[in-house]
Amino acid sequence: MKFKADRTTLIRALAHIQSVAEKRNTIPILANVMLSIEGNLLRLTATDMEIAVVEEVAAEGARDGAVTAPASVLYEIVRKLPDGSVVELDHGGGDAPLALRAGRYATSLNVLPVEDFPSMVAGDLPCAFSIPAAVLRGLVDRTRFAISTEETRYYLNGIYFHVAKDGDTARLRAVATDGHRLARVETDLPAGASDMPGVIIPRKTVAELRKLLDEGAGAVEVSLSDTRIQFRVGAVMLTSKLIDGTFPEYERVIPKNNDRFLRVNKHAFADAVARVAAISQERSRPVKLAVRTNLLTLSAISPDQGMAKEELDETSVSYDGPSLEIGFQARYLNDITDQIDVEAEFAFADSAAPTLVRDTNLPTALYVLMPMRV
Predict the structure, then answer these.
(1) Helix residue ranges per DSSP H, the chain
(2) DSSP code per residue over 278-322
(3) How confident is the model at residue 318 (pLDDT cuts 50, 70, 90)?
(4) Long-range contact list for 95-103, CB < 8 A, 24+ apart?
(5) What NCBIfam families has UniProt attached to this entry (predicted)?
(6) Which of 98, 195, 241, 272 is the most buried (most CB within 10 A)?
(7) From CA 369, how far away is CA 333, in angstroms rounded?
(8) CB within 8 A of 121, min separation 6: which ones?
């Protein structure tokens, strides 16, 4: 196998690939990227047996063939080459090393047999639809912060995508929760998605997909079954297993009758939370919200450092309900306000009940936050 490719093209593809091919993997071949050249098409493939990424890029082929090489090492070498470099890779076959040359630089990398590289075949994916990249990015961004990292509750370790029906209206909905907060966002149902099964996309897959969505693709082609999902974003194909579990009946924890409404400017509120929370280094320490007519007082106490307090008045707060004191973990408050554009609406029941949070400019998104004792 032998080909030439410009550094810019190669580094972009390797950036997509190398995070999937984890170098700490206990199976050596899974730390490698497979490079295959056919004519002027270079295909790069990496997998950890849960996710597979395939990207096709243009290259100047001299000899068709395939080889595997350490993904992270190859990425670091190409990354450190000068801009505008032309990279030549040459492999003579068998267990011969892969030679890499760029200008006056030359190195060689040990390879592993192509025959040992696993194939993660997607199989039959009967449901297929197209969704704008910006829409999918919005669904992911507004929910992924709430994905659980608790491995024992593995069915919460991803985003639950499903079709939600309200009478004759069907919507594509994304939900994530870790038991302390919940994020639910929906959008118009894409054509072809009406029969899709409810699926839980794993946290790592969400992270890899999000990287691809950053690069301005126009539309994403989605194909899925009960067990696998595949995203085509431009020249990149991301295939992943789905979490084999049942997502909880999340609608049961969304409060329906909260009737005390606080509206607050997102920026003023987020800045005040950050300043008040700075008194304590403990990430789990609560910030207390004391609300009365058009006045919000935020406070936090640290046994070691002291206390902090800040008031927000009618210039950024609107509230005309009964006085209320309630506490939330500062990080959870900031995670939610990060998703809000201008104004947040908090709907309270009492100091012990779940609180509903909405973006007043985006009715398709809602968040639920469990309070803490203060």
Answers:
(1) 7-18, 71-79, 133-141, 203-213, 266-277, 330-337
(2) TT---TT-EEEEEEETTEEEEEEEETTTEEEEEEE-TTTEE--S-
(3) very high
(4) 98/67, 98/69, 100/74, 102/7
(5) dnan
(6) 272
(7) 8
(8) none
